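The following record pairs a protein chain with its ligand, zinc ion.
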Amino acid sequence: MNDPQVGDIASMSEFLAHALELELESAERYRELAESMEVHNNPEVAALFRELAAEGEQHAQQVKQLGSGHELPKIAPWDFKWTSPEGPESLAMSDANYLMNRQQALQFSLSNESRARDFYRQVASMSTDADVRRIAAEMATTEDEHVNMLRQWIAQDVDTQQSILEDLDPPNTPE
Ligand code: ZN
């Protein structure tokens, strides 16, 4: 779903204010997910989320540096130019609770990263400011790497479950 308002992000300071909020929010969510996975005895996935949290914080630092020459506008949550009230990387976080299992947590993260990437891509293609387009494109590339990484994790998980199922039940129904 495209948010037409994203195209209105014209100025560098407005873009950076959005990106900063997005990355901080996202890092916070990943820390929560990491804790949840630790509770569920999923240390590898917990480590993955800690890594994604660290990357979000790194991004936020970068954004702060880029914004050091700018007066970043204070934007009220309802004025943020994306569709989810909490920002693209923290979509539907009300679903992410301590009952979330490993596969759900990975799926959640995938949609999170996909939306962040789409947000940056939209800004990269629609902003009227060339510098904003360039930086947004770089950030979209990083988020795309996160998307691919999570897809690999999910595929590995599915493979593992598949082979367990195949061991239990020899394939007598083709397809
Ligand atoms: Zn990311």
